[in-house]
Every structure is written in C-alpha cells, then in structure tokens.
Specification:
Layout lengths: L8 H15 L6 H8 L3 H8 L2 H26 L4 H16 L9 H7 L7 H27 L9 H20 L4 H12 L10
Helix pairs in contact: 1-2, 1-4, 4-7, 5-8, 5-9, 7-8, 8-9
C-alpha cells in the first residue's frame, strides 16, 4: 500500500524556505525545521531526503518563485536603462522594508556562506541564478544601447556582469544593515558612467 502523506509538501517546503532564508543553512538545525513545519524528521526525510536535499529543494523553490520571475520581467522590459533602475529600486525596497527586511537574498546568502559546501545540486542552482541575472541585465543593456541611452563604448555583455555583482552587493549590504538611502546612492553611482548625457566618465 502506498504511503499517504497527511501534509502538503509544497506548504511545508515554503516554511522551510523561509527558515533557511532567514537563518542560513548551517545555522538551521533539523530540530528547528521540524518545529517550524510541525512535521517529524521521518516525514521530512521521507519526502525531501536529508538536510542537504531539503536545503537544495528550498533554494530551488526560492529561485523559481522569487528570483526568476523578477529576472524574466527585466528581460522582457523594452525601456532599457529605466527598467534597470526600476529593478534596483525594487531590490533595495524589498531588502530594506517589510517583514523580510535584513534577510538578504537566499541565493546570495548561500553564495557567501558555508552553506554551499560540496553539494553539486546547490552549485547548479547558484550558477543558474547568476546566468539568469546576468542575461536579464544584458538584455536590458542591449535595449538601452539600441535606444541610444548608453555612453559610447559601453559593452552590454561586460557591464551585465558588473550589474549582477552590484545586485549581489546590494543583497549582502542590506543583510548587514545598510540603509536604503546608502544603497540607492551606490546604485546611482554605478549607473552614472554608462548613462549617456550624465556627465560622468
């Protein structure tokens, strides 16, 4: 007879995702996970596998439910530089206000901590996040170039990497308590040299 689950795995994974996001993988014990979900260890392991597999599943959920939709929206936006500015304004706002202020980005937290470890599945998710972010920035910059918004000689591919790293920096500094005002000033300073007519450079 097949095992019948008496809980919603997706709902449980959402709770796990928030717990790992807020506390980080290494700092989160299975005891904390069972307390947050109300499930016993055997139910968790039977559904998701061990802690490493559970962490990877939470990262995957974060990537597909939170990161990729934002990147896809930026990729589709036809406005060029205004779309990039709006992306960063939204990023600063979500990292510095609301109930999850100070949590940073779960993917970036994994990049900067011991949570990555040797797990190849986690590294695949981190690489997928970076590629999607970089490609979204490149798409927006390519449109900006076509619209005549970029300073002469700006390479969309190279600057897409710069802006991806800027997004990581915003996430890390917000988790460390940087103010929204200081982060906005940093973003403005980073975007000024590539903006035609800004007087920078």
């Amino acid at each position: 007879m097949p095992d019948i689950k008496h809980f919603d795995p997706e709902q449980a994974l959402e709770r796990v995702e928030e717990l790992f996001w807020q506390q980080g993988g290494p700092a989160t014990s299975i005891q904390a996970v069972t307390a947050a979900t109300g499930l016993n260890r055997s139910s968790l392991y039977g559904t998701f596998g061990g802690k490493d597999a559970l962490y990877a599943a939470a990262l995957r959920r974060y990537l597909h439910h939170r990161s990729l939709p934002a990147f896809e929206q930026l990729s589709r936006d036809e406005r060029g530089l205004p779309a990039i500015r709006e992306f960063f304004a939204g990023l600063v706002a979500v990292r510095c206000t609301g109930e999850r202020a100070g949590w940073g980005c779960m993917i970036v937290n994994a990049q900067t901590g011991a949570a990555t470890g040797p797990d190849p599945e986690v590294h695949k998710l981190l690489d997928a996040h970076h590629r999607a972010l970089r490609n979204a920035m490149r798409a927006a910059l390519t449109r900006a170039a076509a619209l005549g918004q970029l300073t002469e000689g700006t390479d969309p591919a190279a600057y897409a990497e710069v802006l991806a790293l800027l997004a990581y920096g915003v996430n890390v500094r917000s988790r460390a308590g940087a103010s929204a005002r200081s982060l906005r000033k940093t973003v403005d300073a980073a975007l000024a040299p590539l903006t035609r007519g800004s007087g920078a450079g």
